[in-house]
C-alpha cells in the first residue's frame, strides 16, 4: 500500500492552519499566541502559548503564499511575543519559533532585517543562554520546502 505523504501532511497541518485563520481578519483572536507567563516549581518561568505560536509559524512556513503581505502584521506580532518569551523564560534560547518568525519576516518585509530593532532585540534576548540567536545558522531554515502540485 502506497502512502500519500502530501495528503498526510495536509491532515497534520489542518489544526495549525485553523489557528492561523483565527488570526486573519477584523476579529482576530491573538489570546492563544500572545505571551502568557506560567510558572512551575520544576522549570521556572515559561510561556503557556509558545507551542501555539510555533504552530502558527509552521502553518505559514508550509504555505505556498508564505510571503504574502497580509501575513506581515501577524509575523511581527508573533516575533515580538517570542522576544518577550526569550527575555523572561527560565530556559532562554530554547525553541525554533524565533527562527521561523525571522525567516518569514525576511521573506515578507522589504526592510533589511539585519538592521532592524527586532533583530537586535531577538539577538540580545538569547545572549545569556548557551543557544544564541543566529538566523543564518539555523539548520531548519537553510532551505525552503517546495510543494509539488
Give a written overview of the molecule.
- The protein is mainly alpha-helical and 149 residues long.
- Strands 1-2 form a two-stranded antiparallel sheet.
- A hairpin with a 3-residue loop joins strand 1 and strand 2.
- Helix 1 packs across helix 2.
- The protein is globular and about 45 Å long.
Shape: globular
Radius of gyration: 16 Å
Largest sheet: 2 strands, antiparallel
Share of β-strand residues? 5-15%
Total of DSSP H or I helical runs spanning 4+ residues: 5
Number of separate strands: 2
Provide mean pLDDT, rounded: 81
Q: Low-confidence spans: pLDDT under 50, at least 5 residues? A: 127-132, 137-149
List the helices and strands and how they pair.
Blueprint: H1 5-21, E1 37-40, E2 44-47, H2 50-61, H3 72-88, H4 97-108, H5 117-125
Antiparallel strand pairs: 1-2
Helix pairs in contact: 1-2, 2-4, 3-4, 3-5
Q: Summary?
A:
This protein is mainly alpha-helical. The chain has helices at 5-21, 50-61, 72-88, 97-108, 117-125, and strands at 37-40, 44-47.
Which key phrases capture this entry?
mainly alpha; 149 residues; disordered C terminus
Amino acid at each position: 500500500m502506497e502512502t500519500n505523504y502530501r495528503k498526510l501532511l495536509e491532515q497534520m497541518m489542518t489544526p495549525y492552519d485553523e489557528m492561523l485563520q483565527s488570526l486573519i481578519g477584523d476579529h482576530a483572536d491573538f489570546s492563544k499566541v500572545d505571551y502568557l507567563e506560567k510558572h512551575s516549581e520544576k522549570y521556572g518561568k515559561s510561556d503557556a502559548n509558545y507551542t501555539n505560536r510555533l504552530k502558527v509559524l509552521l502553518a505559514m512556513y508550509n504555505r505556498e503564499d508564505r510571503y504574502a503581505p497580509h501575513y506581515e502584521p501577524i509575523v511581527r506580532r508573533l516575533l515580538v511575543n517570542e522576544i518577550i518569551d526569550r527575555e523572561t523564560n527560565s530556559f532562554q534560547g530554547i525553541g525554533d519559533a524565533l527562527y521561523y518568525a525571522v525567516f518569514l519576516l525576511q521573506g515578507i518585509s522589504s526592510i533589511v532585517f539585519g538592521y532592524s530593532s527586532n533583530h537586535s532585540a531577538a539577538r540580545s534576548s538569547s545572549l545569556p543562554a548557551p543557544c544564541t540567536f543566529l538566523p543564518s545558522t539555523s539548520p531548519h531554515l537553510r532551505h525552503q520546502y517546495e510543494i509539488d502540485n
